[in-house]
Structures are given as structure tokens and as C-alpha cells.
């Protein structure tokens, strides 16, 4: 069993992060109740001989830092022009740093899943593009996948299916070209 290898890419869209002025009316809206967004994960609780599922509270809310990072990414994604990227953007949900909609296929953020591991890593490097090595490929999901499609010219995994999360990536042998494309366009 091989663990995924994480590669934060600080090369694309490096921000002047901490001096970005958030004005009173940004060009987009995030749900104003996001300070109380709650994330739940299911755990099994044994009661007698029956197994039942109970929602256990995970991370209670998005903190102010996470919200500012999500808004920062959302602003950059509004600059995307490719039709395939625009279609992928409709499948994002700005309730987590990856932009994953947990209701879509492969969108689970349950503890122990690859998506959950990627979210943990993304929280350490919130303004970098994250690629995860999976076998002979480097993959990105959510917001990062949209950026790969827009700026590195990659095609989304699974085409433009509307029932699954945005995913994109490249073979290991094409990683350098993908990085070059990101830095050239970013």
C-alpha cells in the first residue's frame, strides 16, 4: 500500500495574499452564514447488536482564514474563459478549500478518503495548486483541477460529466510540461 505523494505547486497564481484588500462589496457572494457552516462525517456507533450511523461533528466551521482563501480562489476562477473550465466551475461548491461538492460522485470528504487527505494538505498550503501522485499520474480535484484545465491545457478526467467532481491531471512523464504551462500562463 503506497501513500500518496503531495506536491504543492507554489508556482501558479502566487498571491500578494496578505495585503489583498477585501472591500465591502466583493464581485461575488459567498453565503453570509458561512461563519456557521458545519461539516459532519458519519461514524458507526454500536448499540446492542445493531449498527447505526450517527453524524459526528467534525470541524465546526470555516474560520476567517479559510473564507478569505476561498474568496481569493473564487475571484481568480472568475477570470477563466475556456468553455470546458466554465462548465467545470458550475460543479464547484465554495464551502471548503478544495471547492468540492460532497453531493457529487467522488466528492466525499469523509475522514480517511483521499479527498479528505488532500483537504488536510490544502489547508496547510491554501493558495497553492495541489497535485497528488496516484500511480503513474498526478491528479488535482476541485478548484485545482479547474486551474489545470484553464492554464495547463489539460482535459478533465471523465470528460465533462456533470455528475462528478472536477478532476484533471497528467501522466508522470508530462509533469514538467504541465508545470511549465502553469508558470507560463500563471
* Secondary structure tally: strands: 6
> How much helix is in the residues?
25-40%
Order of helices and strands: EEEHHHEEHEH
What are the segments in which pLDDT stays under 50 over at least 5 consecutive residues? 10-60
Ends apart, CA distance between termini:
35 Å
So what's the overall shape? globular
- CATH hierarchy, class: Alpha Beta
Number of DSSP helical runs? 5
Spatial strand sequence of the major β-sheet: 1-4-5-6
Give the structural class: alpha+beta
In CATH, the topology is named MutS, DNA mismatch repair protein, domain I
The largest β sheet comes out as: 4 strands, antiparallel
Rg from alpha-carbon coordinates: 17 Å
What is the averaged pLDDT score? 76
Number of domains: 1
The proportion of residues in beta strands is 15-25%
Query: What is the architecture at the second tier of CATH?
Result: 3-Layer(aba) Sandwich
GO biological process, one term: mismatch repair
GO molecular function: ATP binding; mismatched DNA binding
Protein name: DNA mismatch repair protein MutS-like N-terminal domain-containing protein
Domain DNA mismatch repair protein MutS-like N-terminal: 119-186
Topology diagram in text:
Blueprint: E1 5-9, E2 40-47, E3 50-57, H1 64-77, H2 83-89, H3 114-124, E4 129-134, E5 137-141, H4 143-151, E6 167-171, H5 175-185
Antiparallel strand pairs: 1-4, 2-3, 4-5, 5-6
Helix pairs in contact: 2-4
Amino acid at each position: 500500500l503506497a501513500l500518496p505523494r503531495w506536491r504543492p505547486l507554489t508556482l501558479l497564481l502566487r498571491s500578494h495574499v496578505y495585503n489583498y484588500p477585501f472591500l465591502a462589496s466583493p464581485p461575488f457572494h459567498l453565503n453570509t452564514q458561512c461563519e456557521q457552516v458545519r461539516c459532519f462525517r458519519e461514524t458507526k456507533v454500536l448499540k446492542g447488536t445493531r449498527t447505526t450511523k450517527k453524524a459526528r461533528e467534525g470541524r465546526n466551521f470555516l474560520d476567517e482564514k479559510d473564507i478569505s482563501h476561498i474568496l481569493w480562489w473564487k475571484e481568480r476562477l472568475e477570470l477563466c474563459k475556456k468553455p470546458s473550465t466554465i462548465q467545470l466551475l458550475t460543479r464547484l461548491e465554495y464551502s471548503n478549500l478544495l471547492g468540492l461538492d460532497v453531493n457529487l460522485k467522488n466528492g466525499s470528504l469523509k475522514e480517511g478518503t483521499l479527498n479528505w487527505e488532500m483537504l488536510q494538505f490544502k489547508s496547510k498550503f491554501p493558495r497553492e495548486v495541489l497535485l497528488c501522485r496516484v500511480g503513474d499520474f498526478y491528479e488535482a480535484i476541485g478548484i485545482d483541477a479547474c486551474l489545470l484545465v484553464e492554464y495547463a491545457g489539460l482535459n478533465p478526467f471523465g470528460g465533462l460529466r456533470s455528475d462528478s467532481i472536477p478532476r484533471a491531471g497528467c501522466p508522470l512523464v508530462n509533469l514538467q510540461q504541465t508545470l511549465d504551462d502553469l508558470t507560463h500562463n500563471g
